[in-house]
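Quick one: co-fold with magnesium ion.
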Amino acid sequence: MSNEIDTEHAEIFGAHQLILKDEELFKDIKKDLKKKRINVEQIVQEVFGKWEKKIKGQEISAIQERSNDVIDVGRRLLRALVGSTNKNSVLDRSKDSVIFAHRLLPSDTASFNIKNVKAIVTVEGTQNSHSAILAKALDIPFVSKINVPIDSLPRKTRVIVDGDKGLIIVNPTQAELESYPLLIQKRLSNRTKVLKRINNIPLKTNGELIKVSANVSSLSDIKMAMDCGADGIGLYRTEPLYMDSQNFPAEEKLYLQLVVALNCVGDQEVNLRLLDIGGDKTLPFLDIVEIKDAALGLTGIRLLLKYPSLLEMQLRVFLRLSAKFNVKVSVPMVTLPKDMIDVRRYFSQEKEKLGQEKIPFNKALFLGAMIETPAALMFIDELLEHSDFLSIGTNDLVQYIMAAGREKKEVSEYYKAGNHLIVNALKDIIQKAKEAGKECSICGELAGNLKFTKLFLDIGLRNFSVQSTLVPYVKYKIIRLTRKPGCSFETLQKAEILCSNSTV
Ligand code: PEP
Ligand code: MG
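Sure, here it is.
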């Protein structure tokens, strides 16, 4: 703070530290906590309130003024206790900023004040990284693999980030500065045009309905999905509800946040995914050694089964939501059929508890496996027995089949090759799910790649789940493929290039 403002003002924070260290205050909190045995947030609020009054009652005005500091510290402490992030990061400060970073974790992206971020540029990472997925879902250009020495770019440098072409222009010319707003405008009007074209046209092939739903991970994502005409939510990544927090959210907080989100979806179906932590998705407050660098370790359902209270709480929240909303639940990173059997046991247990407490829920709530590991592919028959539906996560499936990390740019060629390789394996799963009368969707990034749409339709896929902003394009492509040939549309061709560009 001394660098940012001046030393004199920075000393205010020294005084705040002293308040936090005050033994009397701490004693009061401990005493009340022991006596009242209620939540600590309540106690902090009461004790700080008492101290504020005490200081205000002093005769010397200089001391009276200190009451503001007590209020300030009390509020910040409360914010920390209830898990609201203390947004004082450099990322949240200036409007229209471009974030430059070597690598971004999803928790970083989740904590941005997204309104101020115009674009993101990273040295590491690919379009399959979770940060890229989170950013793109909000229509924020995300460019990676750049060769600009980002450390040497002075602050306030003007840049254009072209997410379509995957490049950045440092210190653009006047002509470039003038042309880009027009391009952005055109892009938006293209989407509107496509949206108009797809409006109310049923997606069908051989009499079978085709659904294009959206992958989301936040409220703004959901709103975007609905604006883009998504047929429900095919994958709700719940991790950001945990990442943008300073502790595990309490049951009620999680429930209420999801109620707000689900209220935007109407009666369309939403696939809520259980917490999928591990790999690049860590929780800032979780200090479990096993999940650091857990790509082949304690990820997804494995972590939840090791710490069942986490699983039980999520299942309980999802069950409660099922009383009001059209939801289903998917299980991430399944490998053994036993994973599904174990989750089902906790599922029944939570149903029983809710039943005893007379809390309503949908008794027929669907529970399905995500197919995103080679083992799950091999156990597909057994997994189908224990699943009400399947959801194929190609992002992870490809990286594990190809032994090529989804975030590792050095092996992106292998990753791309893997995308083509798995189509046949997917045919088998889709066919088996169909025979078992169970729904099967693809929700990895590949589902939104227009170069694969025809292949997917040919192998029997009827449920696509893609990034919100791609919904109109995928729908339009399906309409073109399933209707009479000859209706070409320039915008779609451009979109095809856009969706297959590895740096967008
Ligand atoms: C996937 O792996 O394809 C998937 C949809 O899950 P995530 O990208 O969140 O790992
Ligand atoms: Mg995955």
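If it helps, The radius of gyration is 25 Å.
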